[in-house]
Amino acid sequence: MKNILLTIIYVSLATALAAQCFEPDASIWEDTWQSCQVSANPKAAYGNTHWVQYDFGAVRNLSKSWVWNTNAPNRLNQGFREVKIDYSIDGINWTYWGELNFPKAQGNAVYGGFPGPDLVGIQARYVLLTALSNYGDPNCAGIAEIKFNLLPDQMDIPRGEGLPCVDFEEIIVVDVSDTEAYILWEFEPILDDEDEEDIFEDEEIPFLFTFRYRVLGAEEWIAIELREAEIFLQDLDPLTTYEFQVISECGQETVDSYIDEFTTLEEGAQGCYRIDEELYIESIEGTTVVVVWEGREDVEEYVVTYVNFLPNAELVEVEVTDTRIVLEGLLPNLEYMLIVAVECNGVPIYSSPLYFSTQEALTNTDTPEALEAVVSIFPNPTSGQFTLGYETKQADTLSYTIHDAMGRVLQRGTVVVAPGGNQFMLDLSTYADGVYLVHAVSTISGRYASKRVVKGGR
Question: For residue 306, what are the CA distances in angstroms to 6, 285, 309?
């Protein structure tokens, strides 16, 4: 089940962002993506503006979106108001989609957001939001978050003899509503021992699938090619039975799964319950954190999973019947990731990950002192290279690790530090745009700190 969890987390965090100023935070209720100085817009005709550009990493089939405006109580007037939307294949030639008025947030702890631009039928790699006005702040403009629903990618899928076949183990219909269905499948690659090492050197999953489906009894299949082992179907007919099949393509051969089926619900009926934007931090007091989410009467139990980014940290899993959990005894000045799951059709349905940082320990004097005041990262965001700064009063050694959004260690190293200010150059140039975590541990004193760094255009 860990593989399913990691896949969902990856999909949630895959979209990269570029802007004049990006300050990622644990909660969209407490911080925002903001610009406090106009700069050259990626669409040159717009001149110097407040803007946010999203990069999906490749040309994708876009669909609907959802927006959360700036919701921090002391920043409500910074929220985007009149917004131009443009999209692009290459980041140079832009197509104008239109304008929208973003509603002002109210600073409430529970904030559901609102529908964003409907990009159904558009293929693009970049989406650009340009703020024409905000809600009165004379200096800064920003939004909290926007999520894009990306339809299965049908472009630039490599083919050839190097693609391995797979054995399908299980196909799981995770969620079905009146017009949508979410389906994933588990599989094992068919590999020779000598091929395995070369195949998995590729950061991307080297598998090619064709997912096909049709109304039960119909003659024609609807076929979609994709590299992910999951698919989100939209615009289905209510109260209709569909049959589907997954095909693995590998060179000149194919491997077919069994044919399965599902039936959509009646019009207006809800499918499985997924905790998402209702999940938020109620309070952080030192190393005690209170997390709250909206529940539903037909859900009797929730599974809360959280982990910090220390080396060799283990996932902590807690079953609760309430829609609130108090996390006590966490380590101070560390970043944590938390998700909440409910069970649907025998499969856990995970929320989007929630990130938060603990504060200084209030009472536990035995806990090693944190490094938060002496570790720095700049520039942030970065286009690739960045500097890790460390100020100390004594000679020491500093071990660091760089994690991706899924918690995987990408780089590690140990450096010798001298009394005073120290600077070390690190490089993310070979990795995709996105959010990364740098964790530093003082070898001699045992002090530690975690800081996020954003790789993306500036």
Answer: 13, 17, 10
Q: Give the DSSP H/E element, type plus range, for residue 198.
A: helix 193-199
Contacts of 171 (CB under 8 A, 6+ apart): 183, 184, 185, 186, 246, 257, 258, 260
Token pair, residue 392, equals 């100390």
* Encoded tokens for 311: 């080396």
Give the span between the Cα atoms of 131 and 112, in whole angstroms.
Answer: 21
Whole-structure pTM value: 0.38
Distance of CA 343 to the CA centre of its chain: 21
Q: How far is 305 from 293, CA to CA, in rounded Å? A: 14
SS3 of residue 7 by DSSP = helix
295: CB partners within 8 A, 6+ apart: 302, 323
8 A C-beta contact, residue 267 and residue 238: yes
Q: How far is CA 348 from CA 107, 118, 345, 371, in A?
A: 31, 29, 8, 37
Q: Which of 14, 10, 52 is nearest to 32 (CA)?
A: 52
User: In this structure, which amino acid lies at residue 173?
Assistant: V
Name residue 137's amino acid. Answer: D
What string of pLDDT tens digits covers the 458 residues of the chain? 223 333 333 233 233 444 433 332 223 333 457 888 889 999 999 999 999 998 888 888 887 777 888 887 788 899 999 999 999 999 899 999 888 888 888 776 556 677 788 787 788 889 999 999 999 988 889 898 887 776 654 444 455 455 677 888 888 887 788 888 888 888 888 766 555 445 444 444 457 888 999 999 898 899 888 777 888 888 899 999 999 999 987 766 788 888 999 988 888 776 677 776 577 888 878 788 899 888 877 788 999 989 887 767 778 889 999 999 999 988 887 778 888 888 876 667 777 777 777 876 544 334 444 444 467 888 888 888 898 888 887 788 887 888 776 566 788 888 888 888 888 888 888 887 777 878 777 766 666 677 778 887 54
Q: Which residues contact 132 (CB under 8 A, 6 or more apart)?
A: 81, 82, 83, 84, 99
Task: Name the 3-class secondary structure at 9.
Answer: helix
Q: Look at residue 321 and give its three-state secondary structure.
A: coil
Residue 352 dihedral angles phi and psi, to the nearest 5°: -65, 150
| Alpha carbon 295 to its chain's center | 22
Give the type of residue at 147: K
